[in-house]
Specification:
The complex is a heterodimer of chains A (808) and B (344).
Chain A lengths: L1 E3 H7 L7 H11 L2 E7 L5 E13 L7 E6 L4 E6 L9 E11 L3 E2 L3 E3 L2 E3 L2 E2 L33 H4 L5 E6 L10 H12 L12 E5 L5 E4 L7 E8 L8 H9 L7 H13 L3 E5 H4 L3 E6 L5 E3 L5 E3 L5 E4 L4 E4 L3 E2 L12 E7 L2 H11 L4 H8 L6 H15 L3 E4 L2 E4 L6 E6 H8 L5 H11 L3 E4 L2 E6 L9 H12 L20 H15 L3 E2 L5 E2 L1 H4 L5 H6 L16 E2 L4 H12 L6 E11 L10 E11 L1 E5 L4 E4 L2 H15 L4 E4 L5 E11 L2 E9 L1 H7 L4 E7 H7 L15 E10 L4 H12 L3 E10 L8 E10 L8 H19 L2 E2 L2
Parallel strand pairs in A: 12-23, 13-16, 28-31
Antiparallel strand pairs in A: 1-11, 2-11, 3-4, 3-6, 4-5, 6-7, 6-10, 8-9, 14-22, 14-23, 14-24, 15-22, 16-19, 17-18, 19-20, 20-21, 25-27, 26-27, 29-30, 31-32, 32-38, 33-34, 35-36, 36-37, 37-38, 39-41, 39-42, 40-41
Helix pairs in contact in A: 4-12, 5-6, 6-10, 8-9, 12-13, 21-22
Chain B lengths: L1 H17 L3 H12 L4 H7 L8 H38 L18 H15 L3 E2 L5 E3 H4 L24 E3 L4 H9 L7 E10 L11 E12 L3 H16 L5 E8 L2 E10 L16 E10 L1 H6 L7 E8 L1 H9 L6 H4 L2 H6 L4
Parallel strand pairs in B: 1-4
Antiparallel strand pairs in B: 2-3, 4-5, 5-9, 6-7, 7-8, 8-9
The chains are: A alpha+beta (808), B alpha+beta (344).
The complex binds zinc ion.
Chain lengths: 808, 344
């Protein structure tokens, strides 16, 4: 809401405050002031000039040579505007004047003729192009007749006004009107204000003799008032109305439209003027539209209606979508003589629906949607009638023809001083509360500590004790609330085990050299099903999709964090940052239904993606690119950290390198995958060799067991033995390790691969794997024979299971 | 014989002194202290001496041996140290060459901020609660006093999945869920951080996904001044002890009264500058006393229980605290951006 301080000052004196100071007070007591701006950049020395004569410039076709009376004398001015003419009252910047942009006006010669100043357009005076009336857009501004040469043009045009913009929250619809703002500012400043009563001079003819009103759906339209105004002369509205509309960001059109808009701004009540002759009947019927019914609205759009939309009809044909927009057919035009003026209360939800369905949000619909003041509907009609009589020459017919089921009763709310103080933590006296209620102009009855308050209809948002509490608190001032701390029983607070684990896992990854990322949960359809771990793919029927996405890039919920990480990698590589190691703890969304009806399972994943160099120490000729085993090492480290054994099984996953991918298993189930991204996919992302991992963090946290008892450090020495085995190429190192652990149980505690060899000295298709084995008995020192016997046993088993030969 | 022993000793000590290598020293040892050495020879000739002289000469010979042995030892230690010194000198490094790098990663700036806020409220006895991101219309709106058709639903146009399910537009549904589990009889003291979603086109100041942290305290006799006290403690710890706070009236459907909290501008100290748009204040969060309808729907009797709630955006806090000027930076994951804030 844009509030003109000149206008506001007509209602309540605000001149003794600096605009910024006033804004601060308004902000602190109730409504956020978003900006304080002058209507136009400062201009001085501009006066009204009367064009005494206007002739063609002797040396230039497009220029005029004018003699202009500026009150203190007549000036010769050369003017280039096409619309200048003798007899006009125009805005003249005489020599010495300063226009916006610090443009100083001087005497000059134009094509040989002396020019003592400039005739100004509104744009040159700093008016925003969009607020300039159409007829003056391409030329100078022409004043109405009733101004005097020499008058200050800046103040006549209200260009010295200051506009404060209010950021209104949805509950404060009362401040969508100048009257409402005045009540609010009066309360904030502790001053007096009351919306003055309307004074309409009515003619003798009765409105009801010309029109009747019928309402079919009282819930959607509890009040409809029809005023009839005859003998209207459509023309420009007076300058002060135009100025006030302009200040509020509404372009002046003609007196009838301007007056309805003016009252909308003043009272917050939207009105609509129909050309009564074109309306085509003596009966107003408001009803729900028929499905498929059509109307051409003021913007010349044909609109198809449904039962959800309320329409104003002449008993047959729709002439307006209630509260949203009038019909083109009965629009007020230059020849309009009789007006049917509508002042109505439409149900907010209904207007909201219509405005939404037709994409028409207007000053009117916004106010109806938020609920207008029931006490002001009819008054607004009276106010407009009064103005139309004065400024459009209308004869106001007697009485308003109305349908009226509107509830105008004032709510009463009981409050108690102690209760208010207990809730606020204050010690406000009952006298102070009484004084606050008076400032708010909320009538009340008081008995000691207790107040029974009547809430004016303009404040529909105040419905219960807590609302009054807020009114009292804001006027009392939040600055005056003390600082206290909650007195209730204290609890320990803290992180749950899962939250602690999350932080530990993050710290682990970061210690391991990965940077944390946060990516979008909403992704493209294609990306939503890419690089999904098997156990997730098995559970998810389909990715969850939005009903109405804003873009294809964010239309589906992800089933894997990995593609989002790759996208981040690609972003960096495209910017010449080639060495990236990222991880994310992020949610994926698993729905077991292909048509979602219930909340998907949100599963926390721990995922990572790495590309480029892992280690680079050039002067020592050390350099290592990320490879499978770098990434596997990171995962194994996590396995150690959480003490959850993990195994790796070669696997094929769409989008992954078929020979360099494994499922990760824990507790006998797949919990994720690891490997190289498929080279084809790498290429699509513009990536070089890239490795990823993806783990079900939720499952890991479930498997995690907090160490309850401490295991003693072994007191007896362990025995270390090496063993080198020759096996077929396709025998996996992990399988051999399993066999060794099994056959060496319980003495073998640790098995480490320390060499892998293929080539010379080995027959084709063979490889040699060397392991270091650690034997230990925590209870005693091992004897050589025991180790020997276990070692033999192991050799026997690997020979049987894997055809392994001891390497000679 | 005495003279001979003295002579030998002096001779040997001279040679020890002159030795400039371990080998030479060894030779001296063999020469004088070996089985065939001159001192042994002297001792062998002791048979010719009188009974009285024998022990005297024997003792003297032993003393001479010991003196020589000790001199050799001292000299040897000296030579060894010198040798070691020389060797170490030869091993000297250019300590200004760069070390072998260790990969160091770090947290995302938003995580740092969220955890800082979490820890701050944990210190005040709050718990941390989490909840689903795909939320029911009931918990996201209705339980928070936003019935269907409520105009305030416009304030946060949302991504629906079905008519009843949507991407949560705030983390408040976690509050509603947590309260709902308490049978209307236990106090609640929690904060809930998490991702939220709104129908916004991504630009410098809007993001369809962002982060929120909301807090809730419900108990008997919770006062608005308690909210002010808690927020003040939070603001001073988060932004600095010299910052002031102020509450301004505002509106949220789930609180009444509702306020917005500003902190005094760090740049100008309250005088007004471009950062605070001339007001001296910077908006940080929204808060208020829990709306009685919300308490009622969660099973609390609003006559007996009251509470306060607050909500803030870590992105906004990061933008204010670290001068991040484009919200998209938080989600693009440019390495240069991420690394810059690892110490945040
Ligand atoms: Zn500032």
């Amino acid at each position: 809401m844009l509030v003109s301080l000149n206008w506001l000052n007509d209602y309540i004196n605000v001149r003794d405050y600096e605009p910024d100071e006033l804004a601060e007070i308004i902000t602190k007591t109730g409504i956020e002031v978003e900006s304080v701006e002058p209507v136009a950049e400062k201009a001085t020395g501009v006066v009204v000039g009367h064009v005494v004569s206007c002739e063609q410039h002797p040396n230039a076709d497009k220029l005029s040579l004018c003699q202009i009376d500026v009150g203190e004398g007549v000036l010769q001015i050369v003017c280039g505007a096409p619309n200048i003419a003798e007899g006009q009252k125009v805005a003249v910047a005489a020599p010495g004047a300063v226009l916006p942009g610090n443009f100083k006006i001087k005497k000059t010669k134009l094509r040989g003729e002396e020019s003592n100043g400039m005739v100004c357009s509104l744009q040159e005076l700093g008016v925003d192009e969009k607020d300039v009336p159409k007829e003056y857009q391409d030329g100078i501004y022409v004043f109405p007749e009733d101004v005097q040469a020499g008058d200050d043009a800046i103040s006549l045009l209200n260009l010295d006004d200051i506009i404060i913009e209010l950021g209104l929250t949805p509950n404060r619809a009362d401040c969508l009107s100048m009257a409402g703002v005045a009540y609010e500012v009066a309360a904030a400043l502790g001053r007096e204000y009351e919306l003055i009563a309307e004074k309409v001079e009515e003619g003798s003819e009765k409105a009801e003799s010309l029109v009747s009103v019928e309402v079919e759906d009282p819930e959607a339209n509890p009040y409809y008032g029809a005023f009839i105004l005859k003998d209207v002369t459509v023309g420009p509205s007076p300058l002060w109305i135009q100025n006030r509309l302009t200040a509020a960001g509404i372009r002046p059109i003609n007196n009838v439209v301007d007056i309805t808009n003016y009252v909308l701004l003043e009272y917050g009540q939207p009105l609509h003027a129909f050309d009564f002759d074109r309306f085509g009947s003596d009966k107003v019927v408001t009803r729900r539209a028929r499905d498929g019914e059509k109307i051409t609205t003021l913007d010349d759009q044909e609109r198809v209606l449904t039962r959800d939309h309320l329409v104003i009809t002449n008993g047959d044909k729709a002439h307006a979508i209630a509260g949203v927009m009038g019909g083109a057919e009965s629009e007020v035009q230059e020849d309009t003589n009789t007006i049917l003026l509508e002042a109505a209360y439409f149900n907010p939800a209904n207007v909201r629906q219509s405005a939404k369905d037709h994409g028409l949000r207007s000053e009117a619909s916004t106010r109806f949607e938020k609920g207008v003041d029931p006490g002001r509907v009819e008054r607004a009609g009276l106010r407009a009638s009064e103005l139309l009589r004065e400024y459009a020459g209308a004869t106001v017919l007697q009485g308003v023809v109305s349908y009226d089921q509107l509830d105008r009763s004032e709510k009463t709310i009981d409050v108690n001083t102690t209760k208010i103080n207990n809730r606020l933590g204050t010690e406000i006296t009952r006298e102070e509360i009484a004084s606050i209620l008076e400032r708010l102009q909320f009538p009340y009855e008081q008995s000691d500590e207790d107040f029974t308050i009547s809430i004016p209809t303009r404040r529909g948002d105040v419905e219960r004790f807590e609302d009054v509490l807020e009114e009292v608190a804001r006027i009392y001032g939040y600055d005056n609330l003390p600082y206290t701390l909650p007195s209730g029983a204290s609890q320990a607070g803290g992180l749950s085990l899962e939250q602690q684990l999350k932080r530990r896992v993050k710290a682990y990854f970061e210690g391991a050299g990965l940077d944390e990322t946060i990516t979008y949960s909403l992704t493209s359809e294609k990306q939503s099903t890419m690089l999904v771990s098997k156990e997730v793919a098995q559970q998810a029927a389909a990715p969850v999709k939005l009903a109405m996405p804003m873009s294809e890039d964010h239309s589906h919920l992800r089933l894997s964090v990995v593609p989002e990480l790759l996208q981040s990698l690609a972003y960096n590589v495209a910017r010449k940052q080639h060495n990236i190691a990222y991880y994310e703890l992020g949610t994926v969304f698993i729905s077991e239904e292909s048509e979602v009806t219930k909340q998907p399972h949100e599963m926390l994943r721990a995922s990572g993606a790495l590309t480029g160099e892992w280690l680079s120490h050039p002067w020592q000729q050390e350099k290592k690119s990320v490879d499978f085993f770098v990434v596997k090492g990171i995962v194994e480290g996590l396995s150690d950290l959480l003490d959850i054994p993990m195994t790796f099984e070669k696997a094929k996953i769409e989008g992954m390198h078929p020979g360099r991918t494994a499922n990760i298993m824990a507790d006998g189930k797949i919990i994720g995958f690891i490997g190289q991204v498929h080279p084809k996919l790498q290429k699509e992302w513009g990536l070089k060799e890239t490795y990823v991992f993806d783990l079900n963090a939720e499952k890991l946290f479930e498997l995690y067991e907090k160490e309850e008892a401490f295991e003693a450090i072994p007191r007896f020495p362990s025995v270390s033995r090496d063993i080198a085995l020759v096996v077929d190429e396709d025998v996996s190192a992990g399988d051999i390790k399993e066999t060794i652990l099994e056959a060496g149980s319980p003495l073998v505690k640790q098995v480490l691969v320390f060499d892998l060899y293929q080539g010379e000295h080995l027959s084709a298709g063979k490889k040699s794997l060397a392991y270091n084995l650690l034997y230990l008995d925590p209870e005693r020192t091992l004897k050589d024979e025991e180790v020997e016997s276990a070692h033999e046993n192991i050799l026997q088993s690997v020979k049987e299971r894997h055809a392994a030969e001891l390497r000679g | 014989m005495k003279e001979r022993l003295q002579e030998l000793k002096e001779e040997a000590l001279r040679k020890v002194d002159a030795a400039d290598g371990i080998q030479q020293l060894k030779d001296v040892r063999v020469e004088y202290l070996g089985k065939k050495g001159p001192i042994t020879e002297v001792l062998r000739g002791m048979g010719k001496l009188s009974k009285e002289e024998r022990p005297v000469i024997g003792q003297l010979a032993n003393e001479v041996r010991e003196d020589i042995a000790q001199a050799i030892e001292v000299k040897q230690t000296g030579l060894e140290e010198a040798a070691l010194e020389e060797q170490l000198e030869a091993e000297s490094l250019d300590v200004t060459l760069p070390g072998r790098p260790v990969q160091v990663g770090g947290p995302h700036l938003l995580t740092s901020i969220v955890e800082e806020i979490e820890d701050l409220f944990i210190g005040m006895g709050f718990e941390i609660k989490e909840g689903p991101e795909v939320e029911s219309d009931y918990y996201n709106f209705e339980a928070l006093n936003l019935p269907k058709g409520h105009p305030a639903r416009d304030m946060q146009d949302s991504f629906y999945v079905t008519e009843e399910l949507l991407m949560r537009t705030h983390t408040s549904p976690v509050q509603a869920r947590t309260m709902g589990l308490k049978n209307g009889s236990e106090p609640v003291k929690m904060i809930c951080p998490g991702k939220v979603y709104r129908r916004d086109t991504d630009d410098a100041t809007h993001s369809h996904q962002f982060t929120q942290i909301e807090g809730l305290l419900v108990d008997k006799d919770v006062r608005m001044s308690d909210l002010k006290g808690v927020l003040n403690a939070f603001a001073k710890q988060m932004f600095g002890a010299e910052r002031d706070i102020r509450l301004r009236p505002s509106f949220f459907p789930f609180t009444e009264p509702s306020v917005e909290m500003d902190i005094s501008c760090k740049v100008c100290g309250g005088a007004g500058c471009s950062v605070c748009k001339g007001t001296g204040w910077i908006e940080i969060l929204g808060a208020g006393m829990v709306h009685p309808n919300v308490l009622e729907m969660a099973g609390y009797d609003p006559k007996e229980y009251s509470g306060f709630a607050f909500g803030m955006g870590p992105e906004r806090i990061a933008m204010l605290k670290y001068g991040v000027d484009d919200i998209r930076n938080f989600y693009i994951n440019d390495q240069r951006f991420l690394k810059q804030y690892h110490k945040a």
